[in-house]
Every structure is written in C-alpha cells, then in structure tokens.
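On clarity, I found the account of how folds are encoded harder to follow than it need be. What matters is that the chain and its backbone geometry are given together, residue for residue. I therefore recommend that a typical entry be quoted early in the introduction. An entry of this sort, consisting of the sequence and the corresponding backbone structure tokens, reads as follows:
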Amino acid sequence: MRVAVVQVAVPVPLPRLFDYLPAADESLPPPGSRVLVPFGSRRLVGLVIRQSRVEPNERLKPIERVLDAGLIDAVMLDLFAWCQRYYACPPGEIVNLLLPGALRRVKAFREAPAEYLALTAAGRAADLGRAPRQAQLRDLLEQDICSRKALAERGIGAEIVRRMVDGGLVVLTELPPALPAAAGPPLNPAQRSAVAAILRQRHRYATLLLAGVTGSGKTEVYLTVAQRLLRRGRQVLILVPEIGLTPQLVRRIERRLGCPATVYHSGLSEGERLAAWKAAADGRAQVLVGTRSAVFLPLSNPGLIVVDEEHDGSFKQQDGARYHGRDLAVLRAARLAIPIVLGSATPSLESLNNVELGRYQLLELKERAGGASLPRWRVLDQRGQAGMLGEPLLGAVARHLDEGGQVLLYRNRRGYAPVLICNACGWQADCQRCDAHMTWHQLPPRLQCHHCGAQRPMPPRCPDCGSPGLVPLGAGTERLEDLLKQRFPQVPVYRVDRDAMSGRDDFESLLAEVRDGRPCILVGTQMLAKGHHLPGVTLAAVLDVDQALFSADFRAPERLGQAVHQVAGRAGRAERAGEFLLQTHHPENPLLAALIADGYLAYAGQLLAERQAAGLPPARALALVRAEAHQQGSARDFLRAAARLLAGRNLSVTGPIPAVMSRRSGYWRFQLWLQASERARLVQRIADQLAKLHELPEARRVRWHVDMDPIEI
C-alpha cells in the first residue's frame, strides 16, 4: 500500500525533489510550506512543492519540523515549476530565489526590532491622563509615524514604547512615514497618450514596450500610472538593472508619490531583505524597487510591474538558475493578470520582435520632455591621431568647459592600459589562467586579469629578454584620467568605474557633487552611462567602438547601438544644447552610418532582419550546454555524449565548439548550440533528457550547465 509523502525542494545542486514522510503525529503540510528536513548528515530548510503517494521505502525519512505552513502561494509555486523546467536548473536553485537568505537558515534568524512606530485605533481612544509620557508619545504619533531614534531624542525611552506596544496602543512597522507628494512636471501629449494606454489595461494582462528617447520622461509615465494604482490600494513593482540606479530612483519615487519605497537587492543585509520580503508579502510595501531577484517577491495585491532599462544585460543571471528577470517579470504579470511596462531608449531585439509578432504593444516617446533637444551627433575619424584622445576631441572638450558645460567621456575598460608589451622582444603580460591579457593598473601598481581576478606585481623588466622597455598599449579609464588632468589642470576630473567607486555611497556622493553644475570631466565605464540624469553635461563622447564592430559575438552590434545611444543621451538634458562625439578608426562602417542616420529603432529593425535571415535569436530559440574542465578532452567528451542524447527532429545541435574565451580561470570551456524554430520543442527536449545528462559518466569530470536564451557566448 502506497504511503503519503511530500516532495521537497532542498537547496542542493541536484536535479530532483526529495520525498519525506510527515512529522510524527502530524498531517502532511500543504504545498508551499517551509520545512526543516534531514539530508544525509545535515539538516536543511526546504520547500514543500507537492504532495504525493509512493511505495513504502525504509530510506524514507520524516520531516523534522514544519516552520511555516503554506508560506509560498500557488501562483509562486507555479512560477517555481515553470522556472525549473524552462531554465533546466535544479529545484534547489529556485528555492534560493523564492526564499530570502534569512528564511533558508537552519537556526532561527533573529530579526532586528522594527525601526518605526505607528498609533493604533486603541491608542487614539485610550485614556492616558495618568500616563503623561505615554500621552506625549501618542501626541507625537498622531502627527505621523516616528522612528525609535526620533523618540529617544525627545526623551521617550524603550520602556515607554514597550508598554504601549504590549498594550496594543502602538504597533511596530518597518516602513518609514509617508511623505507629502510633490506634483510632477506637466506631461506632454505623447506622455499622456502612453499613460492612458497603460491605464486602459489596468484590469488585465498586457505587455507595453515604452520606447522613448533619452530624456523623454519615461519615469514620469511610470510614476503617473503608479499614482493612480496606489490610490486603489494596488502594489507596484519596479525592476532596475543595477543597484547603482536604485538610490536616485527611490528618492524620486518617494518625492512624487508621497509613499515610502521598499528596496530589495543583494547589497542589503539579510535582515533588510527579510523585512522587505515580509512587507511585500503582507501588502505593507506598496512600492517595491529592486534588481532582478525582486521579480520573485511575493505580492498580496499587485497592480503593475515596470522593468526599467529592459534591454540591460544585468537582468540575466549568469550563475545558478540562469533566469532572465525581464522575461520572468512578463510571465508573472501574465499569471497575475496585470499590465507590465518595459521601458528603454534602446529596446532589446527580443522585445522589438515581440512587438512585430503582436505580443507586445509599442508606445513611443519621440521627443525629450520639458523642451530639451536631442544632442547633435558627430563622428571623429581617429585615423592618424596619436593616442586615445585626438585633438578634435580635446578641442571640443575645451570648448564645452569654457562655455560652462560638463563633459562625459565613455571608455568601457578599467585600469591604466589593457596591454603591457616589451618594446624589444614583443613579450606581453598574459594571464596564466585565461586566454586574455592582464590589465596594467597604476594605483595600486599591479597587473590584473579582469576575467578571473588574478593579480601579480608589475615586473621591472621583461621576463623574457630582460629589457626595461615595457610600454603600455591602449588606454583604460585610469590612464585617461591622468591624461585629462594634465591637459585640463584647472578642471576637476572624476573617474567612474568599479575601482574608483568601491564604497557603498561613493557613486551617489559623486553624482550629488556633479549635479551642482560646475564644469568638470567625467570619464568612466558602463557605470556612468546607465540611466543617470546629469543636467550639466553638454558634451558626451564614446572613445572607442571599433572592437564591437568586429566582435565574434552576434549580439555585439546590438550592444554597440545601445551603448552609443545611452551615452549620447547623457548630453543636453537641460536648457543648454548637447553634442555627442563618436570616435572611431572606421567612420565609413555601414553599421555606424545606419546608427547615426536612422536612429536606434530603425537600426535595431535592420539588425532584427539580419538575425531572422541568419536564423539567430530572437528568430529561433537558442540554448547552450556549456562544459568546462582542466583538461580539454574531458569537456569535449561530455559535450559529445550530450549531443547524442539531445539530437532530435526539428532541433539542430552544433558542437562541441570553443567558447569565445576558450580558457578562463584555468578551465577549458566548450559549448553545444541547440537551436529550434519552436521554443517549446527545445525546452521539451532538454527537460526530457536532463536527468540522463546528469547520469552521464563524463559529467563527473566536468562542470556544466544549460543556459536557455543566453546573452553571452
């Protein structure tokens, strides 16, 4: 006779659920319950996925304890099942996303007491004539929510607070007090049309792609729609690509909506993430702002999801469960029957393809809001110019600084120089663990590989021939900073990259300083180009696009167009006109000509047509099976065996082929390309063979994973 069990997902990298009996003298916990289970010699926190019946087995163990019954609802469990199947990842990886770290601990997590206090109805009605200190606290809370710190400054100690909490007169809350809502700028006709189109869908699922040029007021569209939904008690989830974009957006949201925004990202402590998770689950958090992992937050009364900068590659997870936050946000909106807005000045080809297929609705904002004009574009021919900073570029920088403007120079390479070479024998400083050069950093002096992180001291002489003539080739942001300081000693030069902005608040402090409008030069990497409003910048320039023009990655032209337009969009966002310069050794390149002449959407349409002709994503579904090992043969052998398992009708399997960077961190890297015209067929084939892939003898000698819809090759 079969016995009743629960199937539990535990946080281990194994592609299966595990059966457990109910705890002694207890019934089976419902799906979605958080449970403590024995697992080998360990005890782990797992998630009940479903109930089942199996044949009796002496190896079956009972659940040790039910921690939270029915913690995860059916909608999120459905999302769990979809993710596991579509992204071909172990169930435990999804548990790591559904539950914040504090809820995955075996030992109970001690939560910090809530920071804020609010008055209850009982507190308002209580007779506190004989308790003057409590009456003082009530008087303060009748005006607004207060923090413990603010109360302590007024002489109200923890004992008074405890008595009123125990008596039900006040309650603790993690949410700060409401703010007075500030009126936003008047919307132009295109913005009003976009708001109306989104609100028409407020009771049903729809995906709306808001494609607006930089500075066109996309955020005001989001906030206007959010304001209407918040009045109806609905929750709004806003996803941003990186933590660096969060602080300025949060401040803007809170000013406009008069509502505290709850933040959720990996930079928070476990306690902060748990508090945000709970506030989202019980509806106390009305506006949630987070990076890709926030797509898994529970929502009690959802009304809208926004994905800002939807094209950004940071939404794709590159380890563990390799999900795409944007795509999962669309799926969540569909399951919740609410609208989702994907916003970008440079939409991804995937989103534009969905517009073409009629799955998404396109909303365009073609002009900048508030009367600002788009910058004037100019291409600078770098042929014959010495160094990275040609005289035409330096002349333009000097002119804008003299006119009181700020200058932004984009170079997506950190360090002083990307290559160190011996002028006598040609030796180059290469990484011993990767197929890559080591970058020379001056402060502190070192050679560093930006792929595996390996470092070594700067050699005083060539290791091969002993010559002292070691010279740097090319220029990273560190070298450009030095060159600009020498050329413009009277103007502040700020470097913006991960090396210079290592502190938690460094970037925010710099942005605050730059926004005072005084002339300065900003030189930096992608960190500088993404979504920041810098009204004082009148000149923006991209210093080198040539590498992207000839990359082996078929996505490189798309990334090039996005980066160029995003950088250009930093210029001329206020009343002063802006200028954008594109410096290249190939000014006649047809891709650059199309990008400049036709605008991003036309350029992207051309790229989409090329992808369709070549049978590349998004025209056809693509998955990679990647394998890496210390021995080339081990990775190849596994992928050959995998290719035999995965081959099938209407499915093309190519490989094993080396990755673009064939050796990284001491591992040789190879991959299979799996392509199909029907995505469902590709997903089904991988799901059918996944368990067999794990059982292959060759799998024990390699590290491998499946990457569905990869964005890097």
